[in-house]
C-alpha cells in the first residue's frame, strides 16, 4: 500500500479515537459548563458564600418542595414549606426524613431551583444534597441541614425562589424482568 | 395497461378524498391547524407560526413556480437546444444574502416571544406538577393541597366494547383548577422516566425530568376547560395520561380549594374510623380500576410473563405482610412502584383489601383484610409479625 | 499507479467473479459489495416497512384493535432503528461502493478486505436486533432515540443486545467511511482534481467525515448506557449524581449530523440526475460543494434544537434557534441551483428524473416544516407531535428514499446491462408519490391539531386524517412490492443498455460498458 493511503488511514483512525474520547470528555465538560453558566439549575457547594453575607438586604419568599422518586418510600418533607427571608443573611433550614421500611437504605437527594437564573445568587454552605448518600436504618429519622445565603445582588424582579429536592433510592436495580429477589414468591417472571 | 391502473387508483383516491371532505371534522380549521389558545403568549406563538408558514408558502410559490414553468416550457420537444450557462457568482450571492435577511426578520419576533416565555420569576399560584408512569400529580404549594389526575376513559371504550365518549382519551378524574387572570407558575418534574407536560391552549410544553424542576407560567383570561397531553415517550401508557385544566372565576377557585382542604382533613378522620370489609372492598374497587387495571387487568389475571396475576396469587391469598410491603415499597428492579406516596392510608387499605377479597381470593386464601390504621402502623413500624 | 494494480494485471484468476455462493461471502470487489449492501438495505426497507404497516394499521382507527401498547412501542422503536441504520445508511454505502471507484477512475476501494468485513457484520447486527423481538421482555421499546432513564433503568433485558447491535453498526459505518475517504483522497485518476470530482463523490467525502466524527460519540453514549445498566455507574441517573439530559446532549451531538449523513448523498445523486435529464451542466458546481460543506459544518452546532423543551437556559435556546435557521441558507442555495439547472434545459421525464424532481419539491416541503420547527417558541407547540413526524418523514421518504430509488433506476442499466421497464418504473413512481403524500401530508395537520407522537391511540378529532394517512401508507407499502418486482425483472433481463445509457450523461462511469466489467479502471484513465 502506498504511503499516501497509509497516512490517511492512520490519520482517520486517530480521528475516530479522538472522537471516542471526546464523547467521554463530554461528561466533565458538561458538568463544568453547567457549573459555570448555572444551566442545569443545580446549586453546588459555594466557596464564596462568605462574601455574600454582607448587610441584610430585601425580603424575598423562599419555598421548599420535595418529591420522592419512584421506589423511595421514606417520609421526606421540608420542616418549613414557605417562609420569608432576607438576602445577605445566613439562613438555616432542615428537611425531615424517615426510613419507614424494615431495611437499611441509602438515599440521595438532588436539588433544583426556580427561577433558573437565581442559581448563581443562592450560595449554599451546607446541604444534605451534597452528600453522596444518606444512610438510614429501619425506622430511623433525621433532620437534614441546609445552610445558605441569598446574595444581595439577586435580580430585583426575582421575589420568590423555589428550592426543590428529589430523594432517590441509591440502590435501584436495573432491568425489568431479570434480577428479581428469589425469596419473593411472585407469579411468573417478575 | 398502466394507464388503466392509474385511472382506477385516481378514482379510488378521489372517492376517499370526497368521503373525507364531507365528514364533519374536515370543515374545521381547528382540526388541521394549531390552536390560537387563550393566553397572550399562545396568541403570539400562533402568530409566529402563521408568519413563518406564509413566508414558506411565498418562497415555495416562487421556487416551485420557476420549477414547474421550466418543466413545461423546457421539455426536450419544446427546447431541443438547451442553454449552456452554468454559473453566476452574483446570483449565488443574491440567493444567499436575501434568504439570510429573511431569516433575520423571522428571528427577531421569535426571540422576543421566547424571552417573554422565559420569565419564570414568580407566580401568584405555584403548582408542582409531577409526571408518573402513567398519570400526573399536582401539588398546590401555597394552599397545600395535592391530588393525582388519572385518565378516566373506560378501558371498555379503548377495547372497542362500548362507544367512545366525546372526550375519549382527553378526560381525567381530577382536573387542575386555576383561577382566571392570575399568574400560575408550574414547577414540572417527574417520578420515574422523562415525561412532558403540554397544554396547547397555553402554549406550554416542558419536559418532566426526574430530579429536576422545569418551570412554565401562564395567565389565562378566558374561563373554560382545556386539554393537553403527555409528549415524551414514557413507556406503555404514554398515550393514556392526558391533562385537563379548568380555568374558573376566582370565587369558584376559592371554594374548590376550601373543599380540597376539607377533604384532606376528612381523610385523617376516615383513617381513624372503623371500616368493615365490605366498605373497604367497595372503595377499593374504584382505586383498583384507576391504578392497577393497566397491568394487573380487571380480572386480576395480569399478563402472563410480564405482570403477575393477583387472582390466586400466593401473596394475595396468604402473605398479608409481604402484600403490604409490596404496595408500600414497590418491587426493586420491576415495574411495580411504591404507592405509599400516591395513595392515602384509607385508599391503600381499601385497594389491598379489595384484591384479597376478589376473584375467589376470599374463599381460597386467609381472607385477611387490611384497615387504614394498619397502614399508619406500618409507616410507624409498629406492626409485628403476630399481629399480622 | 500502485503496485497492487500492476500485480492484478499479471494475476490469472481475476478475469471474472468467483463461482458459487461463497463468491458473495469472500468477495472484495466493490461492485459485488455494493450489490450486497443494496440488497441488504432493500430487505431491511421491507422489514422496517412491515413494521410501519403494523403501526399504521393500529392507528387506522381510534381504540386498540391490533396490538397491545407494549408491542406497539417495540414496533415504533424497531421501525426507526431499521430504517435509519438498516435501510437508508446501507443503501447509500452500497451506492458509494458501486459508484465512487468508477467515478474517480479507481480500480476498487482502498481497503477491499475491510470493505467485505464492513458489509458482513451488518446482517449479524440486525439479526441480533431483530431477534430481540423474541426475547423475554420484548424488543427495545424506548424509541429509536432511546432516552435515558426509559432506556436504562426501565428498559427490557434486550437493551443489552440493542447496545451490542449498535456498536457493530457503528463499526461498520466507521470502517466504511475510512475506506471512502482513503479512496477519494488517494486513488483519483491523474488529472482529477478535487473540484473536478463529481458531486456524488463530494457528497460522500463530506458524509464520510461526518460519520468518522459522530459514530464514535454514539458508541460512547451506548457504552455509558451499558455501564449504567450493568456496572452501577450513574451517567444518566440523577440518583447517583448523573443527569438524564446529558444523555440527550451526547445522543443529539451524534443525532443531528446523522440526519445530514442521511441526506448529503441524496443531494449528490440529485445533482447528477437533474444535470443528465436537463441535458445542461449543473448550475453552480463550486457553490454546490460549498453548500454541502457549510451544511456539514453547521450540523455540529445545532443539536439542541431537538431539546428545546428540556429546560435549557434562554441563551442556549436563542443560539440553537439562530444556528438552526442558518442551515436553511446553504440548503436553499442547493435547491435554487437545481431549479436553475432545469431552467432553459432540454428536459425528458424518465423515471430517475421523476424521482429526482419529486425529491426537490418534497424535500423542500420537509425543509419548510424544518424551518418552522427551528422557531423555538413555535416548537413548544410542535415538539413531540405528529408535526415533527411529518417533517422528518418528508425529508427521509420522499427525500432520502426517493433519491435512492432515483439512483437505482438511473444506474441499474450500468450495473446490469439491462434497461428497466420504463412504464412500470413510472407506475411505481406515481404510486409512491401519491402514497407518500397521502400518508405524510395530513400528519402535519394532526400534529398541529394536537396529536402527540409515539402513541398507539388518539382522541376522536384525529380520527379522520389518521385513517387517510393509514390508507396512504398501505398504498405506499404495496407499491414497494412493485419496485422489488421491477428490480428483479431488470436484473434478469431487459432491453440492452449502451455504455452511455442516458443521452448527455457525464462521468467516468458512463465510459465503461454496460454492464460494467467486473474490474474497471485497472489502468487509470486520463482526466482532462
Question: Explain this structure to me?
Answer:
The complex is a heterotrimer of chains A (190), B (388) and C (528). Helix content of chain A is 21%, strand content 35%. Chain A is an alpha+beta fold and 190 residues long. Chain A folds into 2 domains: 1-37; 49-179, Ctag/Cox11 (Pfam 04442) (Sandwich). A 5-stranded mixed β-sheet of chain A has the order 3-1-9-5-7, with no helix packed on it. A 4-stranded antiparallel β-sheet of chain A has the order 2-4-8-6, with no helix packed on it. The longest helix of chain A has 35 residues, at 3-37. The radius of gyration of chain A is 23 Å and the shape is flat. Chain B has 388 residues and is of the alpha+beta class. Chain B is 44% helix and 15% strand. Chain B contains 12 helices and 10 strands. Chain B is elongated and about 95 Å long. Helix content of chain C is 67%, strand content 0%. The two termini of chain C are 17 Å apart. Chains in contact: A-B, A-C, B-C. Chains B and C meet through helix 1, helix 2, helix 3 and strand 7 of B and helix 4, helix 10, helix 11, helix 12 and helix 13 of C.
What oligomerization state is this entry in? Answer: heterotrimer
Helix/strand class of chain A: alpha+beta
Helical amount of chain B: 40-55%
Query: What is the makeup of the main sheet of chain A?
Result: 5 strands, mixed
Strand content of chain B: 15-25%
Radius of gyration of chain B: 29 Å
Average pLDDT of chain B: 88
Order of helices and strands of chain B: HHHEEEHEEEEEEEHHHHHHHH
CATH class of the largest domain in chain A: Mainly Beta
Quote the distance from N terminus to C terminus of chain A.
Answer: 57 Å
List its salient traits.
heterotrimer, A: 190 residues, alpha+beta, Ctag/Cox11 (Pfam 04442), 2 helices, 9 strands, 21% helix, flat, C: 528 residues, mainly alpha, Cytochrome C Oxidase, Chain A, 16 helices, globular, disordered N terminus
Kindly summarize this structure in a few lines.
The complex is a heterotrimer of chains A (190), B (388) and C (528). In chain A, 21% of the residues lie in helices and 35% in strands.
Amino acid at each position: 500500500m502506498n504511503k499516501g493511503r497509509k497516512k490517511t488511514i492512520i490519520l482517520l483512525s486517530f480521528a475516530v479515537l479522538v472522537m471516542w474520547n471526546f464523547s467521554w470528555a463530554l461528561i466533565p465538560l458538561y458538568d463544568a459548563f453547567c457549573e459555570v453558566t448555572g444551566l442545569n439549575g443545580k446549586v453546588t457547594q459555594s466557596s464564596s458564600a462568605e462574601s455574600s453575607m454582607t448587610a441584610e438586604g430585601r425580603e424575598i419568599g423562599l419555598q421548599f418542595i420535595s418529591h420522592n422518586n419512584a421506589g423511595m418510600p421514606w417520609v421526606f418533607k421540608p420542616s418549613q414549606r414557605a417562609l420569608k427571608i432576607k438576602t445577605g443573611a445566613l439562613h438555616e433550614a432542615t428537611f425531615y426524613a424517615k426510613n419507614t421500611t424494615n431495611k437499611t437504605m441509602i438515599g440521595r437527594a438532588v436539588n433544583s431551583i426556580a427561577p433558573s437564573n437565581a442559581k448563581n445568587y443562592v450560595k449554599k454552605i451546607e446541604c444534605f444534597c451534597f452528600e453522596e448518600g444518606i444512610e438510614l436504618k429501619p425506622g430511623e429519622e433525621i433532620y437534614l441541614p441546609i445552610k445558605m445565603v441569598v446574595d444581595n445582588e439577586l435580580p430585583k424582579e426575582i421575589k420568590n425562589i423555589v428550592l426543590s429536592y428529589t430523594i432517590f433510592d441509591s440502590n435501584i436495580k436495573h432491568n425489568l424482568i431479570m434480577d428479581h429477589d428469589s425469596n419473593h414468591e411472585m407469579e411468573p417472571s417478575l | 395497461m398502466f394507464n388503466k391502473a392509474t385511472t382506477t387508483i385516481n378514482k379510488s383516491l378521489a372517492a376517499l378524498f370526497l368521503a373525507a371532505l364531507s365528514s364533519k371534522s374536515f370543515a374545521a380549521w381547528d382540526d388541521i391547524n394549531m390552536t390560537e389558545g387563550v393566553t397572550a403568549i399562545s396568541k403570539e406563538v400562533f402568530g409566529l407560526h402563521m408568519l413563518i408558514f406564509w413566508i414558506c408558502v411565498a418562497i415555495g410559490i416562487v421556487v416551485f413556480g420557476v420549477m414547474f414553468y421550466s418543466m413545461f416550457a423546457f421539455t426536450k420537444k419544446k427546447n431541443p437546444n438547451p442553454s449552456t450557462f452554468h454559473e453566476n457568482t452574483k446570483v449565488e450571492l443574491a440567493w444567499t444574502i436575501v434568504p439570510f435577511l429573511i431569516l433575520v426578520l423571522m428571528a427577531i419576533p421569535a426571540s422576543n416571544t421566547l424571552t417573554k416565555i422565559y420569565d419564570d420569576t414568580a407566580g401568584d399560584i405555584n403548582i408542582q406538577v409531577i409526571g408518573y408512569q402513567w398519570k400526573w400529580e399536582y401539588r398546590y404549594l401555597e394552599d397545600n393541597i395535592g391530588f393525582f389526575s388519572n385518565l378516566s376513559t373506560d378501558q371498555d371504550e379503548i377495547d372497542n366494547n362500548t362507544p367512545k365518549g366525546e372526550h375519549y382519551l382527553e378526560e381525567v378524574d381530577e382536573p387542575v383548577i386555576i383561577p382566571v387572570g392570575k399568574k400560575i407558575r408550574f414547577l414540572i418534574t417527574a417520578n420515574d422516566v422523562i415525561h412532558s407536560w403540554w397544554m396547547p391552549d397555553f402554549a406550554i410544553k416542558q419536559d418532566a425530568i426526574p430530579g429536576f424542576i422545569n418551570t412554565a407560567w401562564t395567565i389565562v383570561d378566558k374561563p373554560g376547560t382545556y386539554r393537553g397531553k403527555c409528549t415524551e415517550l414514557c413507556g406503555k401508557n404514554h398515550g393514556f395520561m392526558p391533562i385537563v385544566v379548568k380555568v374558573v372565576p376566582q370565587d369558584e377557585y376559592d371554594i374548590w380549594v376550601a373543599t380540597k382542604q376539607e377533604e384532606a382533613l376528612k381523610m385523617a378522620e376516615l383513617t381513624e374510623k372503623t371500616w368493615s370489609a365490605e366498605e373497604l372492598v367497595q372503595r377499593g374497587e374504584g382505586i383498583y380500576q384507576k391504578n392497577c387495571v393497566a397491568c394487573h387487568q380487571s380480572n386480576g389475571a395480569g399478563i402472563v410473563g410480564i405482570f403477575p396475576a393477583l387472582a390466586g396469587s400466593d401473596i394475595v391469598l396468604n402473605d398479608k405482610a409481604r402484600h403490604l410491603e409490596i404496595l408500600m415499597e414497590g418491587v426493586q428492579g420491576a415495574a411495580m412502584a411504591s404507592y405509599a406516596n400516591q395513595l392515602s392510608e384509607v385508599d391503600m387499605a381499601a385497594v389491598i383489601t379489595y384484591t384479597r377479597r376478589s376473584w375467589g381470593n376470599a374463599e381460597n386464601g386467609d381472607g385477611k383484610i387490611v384497615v387504614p390504621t394498619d397502614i399508619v402502623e406500618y409507616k410507624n413500624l409498629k406492626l409485628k409479625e403476630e399481629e399480622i | 499507479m500502485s503496485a497492487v494494480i500492476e500485480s492484478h494485471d499479471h494475476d490469472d484468476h481475476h478475469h471474472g467473479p468467483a463461482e458459487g455462493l461463497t463468491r458473495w461471502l469472500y468477495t472484495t470487489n466493490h461492485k459485488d459489495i455494493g450489490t450486497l449492501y443494496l440488497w441488504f438495505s432493500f430487505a431491511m426497507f421491507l422489514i422496517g416497512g412491515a413494521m410501519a404497516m403494523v403501526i399504521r394499521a393500529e392507528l387506522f382507527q381510534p381504540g386498540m384493535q391490533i396490538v397491545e401498547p407494549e408491542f406497539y412501542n417495540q414496533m415504533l422503536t424497531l421501525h426507526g432503528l431499521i430504517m435509519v441504520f438498516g435501510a437508508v445508511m446501507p443503501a447509500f454505502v452500497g451506492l458509494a461502493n458501486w459508484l465512487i471507484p468508477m467515478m474517480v477512475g479507481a480500480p476498487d476501494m482502498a481497503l477491499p478486505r475491510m470493505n467485505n468485513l464492513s458489509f458482513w457484520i451488518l446482517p449479524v447486527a440486525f439479526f441480533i436486533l431483530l431477534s430481540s423481538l423474541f426475547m423475554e421482555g420484548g424488543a427495545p421499546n424506548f424509541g429509536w432515540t432511546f432516552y435515558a432513564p426509559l432506556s436504562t433503568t426501565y428498559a427490557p433485558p434486550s437493551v443489552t443486545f440493542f447496545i451490542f447491535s449498535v456498536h457493530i453498526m457503528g463499526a461498520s459505518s466507521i470502517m466504511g467511511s475510512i475506506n471512502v475517504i482513503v479512496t477519494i483522497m488517494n486513488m483519483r485518476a491523474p488529472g482529477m482534481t478535487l473540484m473536478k470530482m463529481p458531486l456524488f463523490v463530494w457528497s460522500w467525502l463530506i458524509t464520510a467525515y461526518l460519520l468518522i466524527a459522530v459514530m464514535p460519540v454514539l458508541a460512547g453514549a451506548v457504552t455509558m448506557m451499558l455501564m449504567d445498566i450493568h456496572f452501577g455507574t450513574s451517567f444518566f441517573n440523577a440518583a447517583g449524581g448523573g443527569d438524564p439530559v446529558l444523555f440527550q446532549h451526547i445522543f443529539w451531538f451524534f443525532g443531528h449530523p446523522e440526519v445530514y449523513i442521511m441526506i448529503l448523498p441524496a443531494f449528490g445523486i440529485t445533482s447528477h440526475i437533474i444535470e443528465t435529464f436537463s441535458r445542461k451542466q449543473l448550475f453552480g458546481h463550486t457553490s454546490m460543494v460549498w453548500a454541502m460543506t457549510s451544511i456539514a459544518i453547521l450540523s455540529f452546532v445545532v443539536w439542541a434544537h431537538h431539546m428545546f423543551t428540556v429546560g435549557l437556559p434562554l441563551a442556549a435556546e436563542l443560539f440553537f434557534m439562530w444556528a438552526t435557521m442558518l442551515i436553511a441558507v446553504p440548503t436553499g442555495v442547493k435547491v435554487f441551483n437545481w431549479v436553475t439547472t432545469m431552467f432553459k434545459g432540454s428536459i425528458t421525464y424518465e423515471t430517475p428524473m421523476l424521482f429526482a424532481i419529486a425529491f426537490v419539491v418534497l424535500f423542500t416541503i420537509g425543509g419548510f416544516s424544518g424551518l418552522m420547527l427551528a422557531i423555538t417558541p413555535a416548537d413548544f407547540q410542535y415538539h413531540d407531535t405528529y408535526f415533527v413526524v411529518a417533517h422528518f418523514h418528508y425529508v427521509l421518504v420522499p427525500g432520502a428514499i426517493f433519491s435512492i430509488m432515483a439512483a437505482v433506476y438511473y444506474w441499474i442499466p450500468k450495473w446490469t446491462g439491462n434497461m428497466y421497464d420504463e412504464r412500470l418504473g413510472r407506475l411505481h413512481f406515481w404510486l409512491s408519490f401519491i402514497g407518500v403524500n397521502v400518508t405524510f401530508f395530513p400528519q402535519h395537520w394532526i400534529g398541529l391539531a394536537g396529536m402527540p407522537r409515539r402513541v398507539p391511540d388518539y382522541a376522536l378529532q384525529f380520527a379522520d386524517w389518521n385513517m387517510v394517512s393509514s390508507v396512504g401508507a398501505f398504498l405506499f407499502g404495496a407499491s414497494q412490492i412493485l419496485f422489488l418486482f421491477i428490480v428483479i425483472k431488470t436484473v434478469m433481463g431487459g432491453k440492452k443498455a449502451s455504455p452511455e445509457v442516458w443521452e448527455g450523461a457525464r462521468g467516468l462511469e458512463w465510459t465503461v460498458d454496460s454492464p460494467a466489467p467486473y474490474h474497471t479502471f485497472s489502468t487509470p484513465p486520463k482526466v482532462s
